[in-house]
């Protein structure tokens, strides 16, 4: 994930994150920086959707907890950020509970 | 409304649709402190099944550039409209003094030599809603209320 994010191989779902930042590029850059800072302690769970396995993370950004859901497109290859927004409820990650 | 088949990839939101470049009317985006319309001919990677929209770096950068231009034009237009109303009640220089602007600033703004800040536009819009009353309030604030404030 970090390697792909570092190369800028990242696709961000518009709507999940974009309204929480001043500009679309700010949202994209924030998602990229968040991916670069990810650690195993932020990991919450892996979900099996229809045809994808997606990973859910809870991250502390400043004072707020954030929800991040991503998968890897092996064909491109690329990190696909499906959700990236402030937490609406506490979420348990490997490193402990992250609060909104 | 138009689509392009290039870069089609499977949508990871619905899992079934194909993501293609797609332009349509009615899209909006937050830009700085405003919500702006995205130009109807601006193409965003979009799922043809669920409508999920995706941003890659190139799209985010282009969208920023487009919205920046729109934002500046809208601010300038709003400032000019408000100034037009306010100047029926006071001189341009008197308004500059009340708003703490340097002499000639508003002329530069009106001639397009300077772009107004969002803060200035917010002030102008509020004054223009009720110029006579707001100008009087501002005058009172600077000449009386500020001096009487406790630190």
Give the topology.
The complex is a heterodimer of chains A (100) and B (151).
Chain A: H1 2-6, E1 10-14, H2 24-36, E2 43-48, E3 53-61, E4 64-73, E5 78-86, E6 91-93, E7 96-98
Chain B: E1 2-10, E2 18-23, E3 28-31, E4 34-37, E5 44-47, E6 53-55, H1 57-86, H2 92-99, H3 105-111, H4 118-129, H5 131-148
Antiparallel strand pairs in B: 1-2, 2-5, 3-4
Helix pairs in contact in B: 1-4, 4-5
Would you give an account of this structure?
The complex is a heterodimer of chains A (100) and B (151). Chain A has 100 residues and is an alpha+beta fold. Helices cover 18% and strands 45% of the residues of chain A. Chain A has 2 helices and 7 strands; from the N terminus they run αβαββββββ. Chain B has 151 residues and is α+β, with helices and mostly antiparallel strands. Chain B is 50% helix and 20% strand. Chain B has helices spanning 57-86, 92-99, 105-111, 118-129, 131-148; strands at residues 2-10, 18-23, 28-31, 34-37, 44-47, 53-55. In chain B, the strands form 2 sheets. Chain B has a 3-stranded antiparallel β-sheet with strand order 1-2-5, with no helix packed on it. In chain B, a hairpin with a 2-residue loop joins strand 3 (28-31) and strand 4. In chain B, helix 4 packs across helix 5 (131-148). Chain B is elongated. Mean pLDDT of chain B is 92; it is low at 1-6.
